[in-house]
Design brief:
Structural class: alpha/beta
Radius of gyration: 18 Å
Number of helices: 11
Order of helices and strands: HEHEHHEHHEHEEHEHEHHE
Largest sheet: 5 strands, parallel
Strand order of the largest sheet: 8-7-5-6-9
Length: 292
């Protein structure tokens, strides 16, 4: 752990008890569905989903994250999307505003501090019932690690569907695991691991010209995924922002209790440096476009 990261962790730990008191006195009145409710609603018809997390909120507030630089246009688009209301376009928020006790202590410490930093933005959000962003983060930060039923329910979202992944260069959704074994087919559009927003227009143009609207678009592309999903939805596509779901499932099937580096693919919250090329022939055959 480098010095800056250590200092940030120390500040969060020291601030945690004080922030717990602060939010008891001045709670953020934001209501988020349970994971089960979000899956149930998402399964009803041809609904789409984008998920907002700390990264998107930070960008909207003028900051940058390690894999996506700040641009004014991106911040404005994220602000526009989060205000969009359509019953078939679900927008997720992290389930951290009430009942943090379901999360492990490091996650509680992180979220208390993040909520405090961005409290003004959170208080300005539209009054609505939000979907649960942790649909893609259901395992490692939760105390309850028994997620077999949850993952089985999640897989029904793409059962027998023709799936198109829009993913980072090293994401490799489903490679080495069975999370998408029930799909009818898989195709992949490969994008940069960092600053994927820089190619979002090219990606959208390719999908609009080459992909049938009956396909299910699954996005693992950070903040850029929100923009792509929103635009594709307006053209009649079904899109689901799955984020780091592959990492979570890998950790689940391994039974690990802490975030750990995955071999041969991207790991959530980790750098993609030193990840070897994928030699899986099936994976290579699924790639229909690269925007690198």
């Amino acid at each position: 752990m480098n010095c800056i990261r250590f200092i940030k962790c120390f500040v969060r730990i020291v601030a945690y008890p004080f922030l717990s008191i602060y939010f008891k006195l001045f709670p953020l009145d934001i209501h988020v569905q349970s994971l089960e409710e979000t899956i149930t609603v998402l399964s009803d018809g041809r609904k789409s989903l984008v998920r907002y997390g700390d990264g998107e909120i930070k960008l909207m507030n003028g900051g940058a994250i390690y894999f996506q630089p700040y641009t004014k246009k991106l911040a404005e688009q994220l602000s526009q999307i989060i205000s969009f209301q359509d019953e078939n376009f679900m927008i997720g928020m992290p389930d951290v505003f009430y009942g943090l006790n379901k999360l492990v202590l490091p996650a509680r410490i992180f979220w208390k501090y993040s909520l405090f930093l961005h409290r003004k933005l959170y208080r300005s959000l539209p009054d609505r019932i939000w979907a649960n962003s942790f649909l893609s983060r259901p395992y490692i930060d939760y105390k309850d690690k028994d997620k077999k039923v949850f993952f089985a329910s999640l897989c029904e979202l793409w059962n027998a569907k023709n799936v198109v992944f829009v993913e980072g260069e090293a994401t490799r959704n489903g490679i080495g695991n069975d999370l998408y074994k029930n799909t009818a087919s898989i195709r992949r559009i490969i994008c940069p691991a960092t600053n994927a927003y820089s190619v979002y227009e090219e990606v959208e143009s390719f999908i609009l010209s080459s992909i049938d609207k009956s396909s299910l678009i699954l996005l693992s592309l950070g903040p850029a995924a929100k923009v792509i999903a929103y635009d594709l939805y307006s053209f009649g596509f079904q899109v689901i922002d799955i984020g780091h779901l592959d990492s979570e499932y890998e950790w689940f099937i391994r039974g690990v209790k802490r975030k750990s580096k995955l071999q041969g693919k991207h790991s959530a919250e980790s750098s993609d440096m030193h990840i070897s090329d994928c030699t899986d022939e099936k994976y290579s055959s699924q790639i229909i476009a690269r925007f690198l």
